Amino acid sequence: MNVLAYQRPVLPTGIYLGALRNDLAEHMMPLELQPIRRGQRRAVGALWAAYEQAHPHVLGALLDLAAEV
């Protein structure tokens, strides 16, 4: 008999996270993002161009990881 075990990540997309159950809150990794300085910000066109260039590589890496899991 085969037994499969897996974990599914949860990505909450809200600002108020105070109502989370304790067990979920204990397994979360809080990230504190720093603001991007004006001199380091990209124009929208440059941002989308970089996204389109990186997208196949990022998607491929995610699919490779999913296949390994």
Write the layout of secondary structure elements.
Elements lengths: L21 H5 L17 H25 L1
Q: What would you note in describing this structure?
A:
The two termini are 19 Å apart. The mean pLDDT is 79. The chain is flat. It is mainly α. It has helices at 22-26, 44-68.
Relevant terms:
69 residues; mainly alpha; 0% strand; flat
Which geometry do the CA atoms define?
A: flat
Beta-strand percentage range: under 5%
Tell me about the largest β-sheet: none
Q: Residue-averaged pLDDT, rounded? A: 79
**Uncertain runs:** none
Radius of gyration: 18 Å
Helix content: 40-55%
Number of helices: 2
How many strand units? 0
SSE class: mainly alpha
What pattern of helices and strands is seen along the backbone? HH
Distance between the termini: 19 Å
Give a short overview.
By secondary structure, the chain is an all-alpha fold. It has two helices and no strands.
